[in-house]
Amino acid sequence: MDTQVGIVGGGPAGLMLSHLLHLQGIESVIVEARSRERLETEVRAGVLEQNTVDLLRETGVGDRMDREGAVHHGIELRFDGQGHRIPLSDLTGGCEIVLYGQHEVVKDLIGTRLDAGARIVFEAEAVGLRDIESRKPTIRYRHDGEDHELRCDFVAGCDGYHGVSRPSIPAEERTEYDQKYPFGWFGILAEASPSSDELIYTLHERGFALISTRSAKVQRMYFQCDPNDDAESWSDEQIWEELQTRTETHDGFTLNEGPIIEKSVVGMRSFAVEPMQYGRLYLAGDAAHIVTPTGAKGMNLAVRDVSTLAQALTAWYEKGQTKLLDDYSNTCLKRVWKTQRFSWWMTSMLHSFHDDEGFQHNLQLAELDYVTSSQAAATSLAENYVGMVFDE
Ligand SMILES: Cc1cc2nc3c(=O)[nH]c(=O)nc-3n(C[C@H](O)[C@H](O)[C@H](O)COP(=O)(O)OP(=O)(O)OC[C@H]3O[C@@H](n4cnc5c(N)ncnc54)[C@H](O)[C@@H]3O)c2cc1C
């Protein structure tokens, strides 16, 4: 099989890239290890920043998001038993965020691509890339128990942190930056009504917690835990007690409980690889970088990468220009490091490190006090949160 752009991975990055290329008349094939059903149901990210929302709308895949997503104009930072609102829209000239699950975005993109006749090979695992330094790189993959090859002009490595694309760049040609944290996130989905109109990020002596929402009936909540915790070893009672304790306020906040329908533990890390391109291989999304989820940026950053890549490939196919392709890595990395900084800062401010006598905790409280009392500091958080400062 031959195509113009071979895409490894059908997550948000791979699907969005395929969609953007199609709108420019460029053909692509997606090789995706998992089934369509799995992709469309796995709950992950949920906060779309303004740029992502705009891009989905502008390219015709925002209708369901506009109908079913929840537009938010602020977030709450809670500490010392008190909540403080950061009015995101007021501080950013009207920018907003939309709560709409990553799997819903994926579902919309898969539907749109298949309706347009796209070739997405589900349950096809890429096992290696060949000739990425040549003009005809090849993706080798296994599907239905057989080996296949996809020859293309360019390969987009959109296969997440554990994929085959990044390791295909020779070790001596890449530098990897990896930062692990001594905690993880315990995440639950609960059948309950929303406890708040906006997201609540809270710092408590026992650690971080986040109250988020998915719909009028299903809520998403997280709390800081040991990264080695086994989710199944926590009873529902223990989970609710932990969340109730960390989110309580002096004026009596009510956290609505309900049946827990999913629970999981994810580790926390920051990761980046430089460069994000080698030969005719271009990395995008989690294949190139992982940011801590506290800033809600991972999927948004993935979408930004492929938007840059689609523009570069369009310039190459339409005008034979190589400049944007040559600049791809540098263009993305400037944004990646700004995003890493913001995500790291949010994580550092809101998680307990339990590694001192309370010095760090007091610094965190001082930082939160500053952010919630200074308009300049609150504006800085707001601009980063809605994605304004990541423009090229
Ligand atoms: C708890 C949590 C909360 C988060 N919250 C947010 C949030 O609020 N906002 C936000 O923006 N981000 C958030 N993120 C991050 C976000 O989910 C990721 O950054 C996003 O999924 C990255 O998209 P991607 O397409 O680059 O990678 P992925 O979604 O990982 O997709 C990669 C795809 O490649 C496929 N693949 C892998 N290997 C192969 C192979 N060998 N062959 C073929 N296919 C392969 C995989 O099956 C997968 O479908 C969160 C993450 C977590 C864990």
What can you tell me about this protein's structure?
With 392 residues, the protein is of the alpha+beta class. The protein has two domains: 228 residues, FAD/NAD(P)-binding domain; 124 residues, D-Amino Acid Oxidase, Chain A, domain 2 (2-Layer Sandwich). Helix content is 36%, strand content 29%. It is built from eleven helices and 20 strands. Helix 1 runs parallel beside helix 6 and helix 1 packs parallel to helix 8. The longest helix is centred in the last third of the chain and has 28 residues. The chain starts with a strand and ends in a 6-residue tail after the last helix. The relative contact order is 0.17. The structure holds flavin-adenine dinucleotide. Flavin-adenine dinucleotide binds next to helix 1, strand 9, strand 13 and helix 8.
Question: Concise description?
Answer:
The chain has 392 residues and is α+β, with helices and mostly antiparallel strands. It has helices at residues 12-23, 36-41, 50-58, 63-68, 88-91, 102-115, 236-247, 298-319, 323-350, 359-373, 375-386, and strands at 5-8, 28-31, 47-48, 70-72, 75-79, 82-86, 97-99, 119-121, 124-130, 138-143, 146-151, 154-157, 175-191, 199-204, 207-213, 218-225, 260-274, 277-278, 281-283, 289-290. Strand 14 and strand 15 (207-213) form a beta hairpin.
